[in-house]
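INFO worker-7 received task bundle
INFO bundle size: 2
INFO processing item 0
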Amino acid sequence: MFGRREPVPFAFLAEADRFRSNVTPPPRQRSSVSQIAGRWLLGLTIVAGLVGSLVLGMPALSTPSDSGTQQSQASQGH
């Protein structure tokens, strides 16, 4: 009753349920101290660049607080 399966348009999907590999992947190599230090240095460089761009860009994003007192020459009738 439950043994019959729906037809699958791709044969590899139907075969995937029955395939089991007996090959174990090789163990992961441990990272050396220099690789870990390099990753930390790269991460710190990226974070420092983002913070620096934010610090340098904040004045350009802020609006002047005394914008109501400044008038253009065109509005003064010149």
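INFO item 0 finished
INFO processing item 1
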Amino acid sequence: MSVTTPKGPQLAVLPTAAENDTRQGAQVLQPSGWPMPKGYANGMAAEGRIVVTGGVIGWDAEERLADGFVAQVAHTLSNIAAILAEGGARPEHLVRLTWYVVDMDEYLTNLKELGKIYRAVFGAHYPAMALVQVVRLVEKAARVEIEATAVIPR
């Protein structure tokens, strides 16, 4: 019988919840030797009750879109926080965000401002994220749409 050593990076699991917390929180999956990502996680692991959103855009209760990309992102993130709260989830329960933008350059040009807005709504918790440029969104004036997945620990 031969024993093989796995090739490739080893996986590190980093807890994001306080160590004294009796509930198991989401864990960041960071392969050893990989550079730490800025503003997102490579992967997440969690157990518990799943809360998901549909594609959320930056409009208010009267379906009026905020003016401009940055304002729409701010309102979109606030809308996601409200949906999570409705399901009993908090920002630290987020395990995944998928962003759909109509202009990648618009996103990249505003990174610093977007980071401030993100931290104001969700704090310094960065789940796994994907960013996709699309031709357009269902609402023609929408500049961004975000889907969220959260897991509330048992």
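INFO item 1 finished
INFO post-check item 1: The longest helix spans residues 69-86.
INFO post-check item 1: Residues 1-23 have pLDDT under 50 and may be disordered.
INFO worker-7 idle
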